[in-house]
Design brief:
It contains 10 helices and 8 strands. By secondary structure, the chain is α+β, with helices and mostly antiparallel strands. The strands form 2 sheets. Strands 4-1-6-7 form a 4-stranded antiparallel sheet. The protein has a 4-stranded antiparallel sheet with strand order 3-2-5-8.
Length: 289
């Protein structure tokens, strides 16, 4: 169980310290309390010592506090409600509200769009007025008889010079080379077929199959591809199997009581006895093992 700030931890410490004081005043041993409330001694010891990071989710901690308070003759339901109120996070809503108030507001004067539109209109009018004289001058040059006459005379002179030059020089014979014939051959221009992608490149990792077998009672939470598929307690001898395409996340309150097997391999303990542990398994990590 994770706490957001120091104030929450101090408030919870006051509650567990009061419970421990009442238990010691009544001379009740921790083992007797565990047998009466059906809560394991390591969990009760972690509660009394304020080691909240070793405890499971807040909803289970509320149940532990309620059973503890009832066993001591106190109002366990009221204590559990106090724990729930502490574990809630009103600070987050206050921060969001503060961020919304701190967001700067941008004010754009109404005259700015009109100024931009007026500038665009002036630029367009200036462009149109400058284009008209150039178009008119070009059309006048095309329709001028003097210009057309000069163009015709220059074209005839050029044609006569070219014809005289060609008649004075003998035309050499140009042999057709074998390389030119091959270059013009349609077979040389045929494109080579593009290589087809290898079927091995399109392979994807197969899904991972995880089997859990309980050697003792333990709280578990299992997420498959981002969705919580199971959350609760399993007893000794229980066996569950899940399959995930992307990832499978397992969190246990008693990791030493859980045997885990990936893809039907040899099962191994998830962790040590009475320890809280979380593991993430993907198809890549399962196949690399």
């Amino acid at each position: 169980m994770k706490l957001l700030n120091k104030a929450q931890e101090e408030q919870l410490m006051e509650i567990v310290a009061h419970l421990r004081q009442v238990r010691e005043e009544k001379a009740i041993r921790l083992e007797e309390l565990a047998a009466y409330t059906h809560i394991r001694p390591p969990i009760l010891k972690a509660i009394e010592e304020g080691r909240f990071e070793e405890l499971p989710e807040p909803i289970y901690v509320q149940g532990f506090i309620r059973h503890y308070g009832d066993a001591m003759g106190l109002d366990g339901a009221a204590l559990a409600k106090t724990v729930a109120d502490i574990c809630l996070t009103p600070q987050e809503s206050n921060k969001d509200h503060q961020v919304l108030h701190e967001k700067p507001s941008i004010y754009v004067p109404l005259a700015v769009p009109y100024v931009l539109l007026l500038g665009a209109a002036c630029f367009g009018l200036y462009y149109i007025l400058n284009q008209q004289p150039s178009v008119e001058s070009a059309s006048q040059r095309k329709s001028s008889p003097v210009a057309s006459k000069q163009k015709t005379e220059s074209a005839s002179k050029t044609a006569s010079l070219v014809s005289s030059a060609s008649s004075s020089k003998p035309k050499p014979s140009v042999p057709v080379s074998l390389a030119t014939t091959k270059a013009l051959s349609p077979q040389a221009t045929t494109p080579s077929p593009s290589p087809t992608p290898s079927p091995t490149a399109q392979k994807t990792s197969p899904p991972v199959e995880v089997t859990l077998e309980l050697q003792d009672k333990s709280w578990l939470r299992v997420k498959v591809d981002g969705k919580t598929e199971f959350e609760g307690e399993l007893n000794k001898g229980d066996k569950k199997t899940w399959t995930a395409k992307k990832e499978l996340i397992i969190r246990s309150g008693n990791a030493g009581a859980v045997l885990i097997s990936t893809n039907k391999k040899q099962p191994t303990p998830l962790g040590s006895i009475d320890s809280v542990k979380q593991v993430t398994i993907t198809p890549e990590t399962a196949n690399s093992q």
